[in-house]
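Tutorial handout. Part one gives the primary structure; part two gives the three-dimensional structure as tokens.
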Amino acid sequence: MLPNFLVVGAAKCGTTSLFHYLNQHPQIFIPDKKECYFFSDLPLFTGPRNDQEINKAAIHSVAEYKVLFAPAEQSSLRGDVSHDYLYYHQRSIPNILKHLGSSIPIVIILRDPRARAFSHYKHHVKAGTTRDASFAQALAREQSRIEQGWSWNWHYVRVGLYAEQVEAFRRAFRRVRIYLFDDLCDDEAELIRDLYGFLGADTGFQPETRIENPGVSIRHSGLNRFLTNESYAKDIVKGLMRSVGLTREQISRLKHRTITINTGAKETLDDAHRSQLTALFEEDLSRLEHLIGRDLAAWRR
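Part two.
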């Protein structure tokens, strides 16, 4: 079996929340593997850890992809939540049309591109996968990384240029539902009901809700990288801890406690970067407003 609806993105816009809402519904089947990386037929990326994980996880055969949906009942709604499909629309759309046709329901969720970019950067900081000293440095290095073949994980600005991506899906598919992250924050229950209704599921079901992927700041990035990445030095420290009698469980608790202490309050985008990004996104936002018929003035403030 194959999916009969898709959530295609964008990254850091609420797709994880949608995944959890959909996965809880008794009439909907979602594979445990969020982000299947199938229809986008991704190339091999050359960036650091995240990119190498994507290279290993990407699915390139139809047979392997179908296995993900084998546990689903024939009559169930079956979905694939993969946020790379929207950004890599030139690759994904022909493959979706080939395997699923133009009537497949498509769900898109978008966020203020300035906040989206900053959230993606903070995700890398928290995970210890970036050595950029600042958000400004990450933005400055984006174009060279794109040219070197790094994945969308490092395309902080480019991913937020939504207009072309949305227009491509609207042209190719008959049923496209577009939500905003603002909708998720303002009236989560209504968005969930509308989403279920769009897919043909029972709108009376109420899933458990929670905030997904909250923004955080890291007090010491070097410590965070040490705690979240494997290394020879880390193996030595763990060995010393075991030698003084600490169990694996105690070591694990200590690690997570240290990560929690090292994680500060929610960090916000400063005025200088906000102004810089507002100017970069202005033309695209105007085009997007026309495409989706929504007032995006809040994304300019």
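Part three, for discussion. The chain has a mean pLDDT of 88. The chain has two domains: 5-214+269-300, 221-262.
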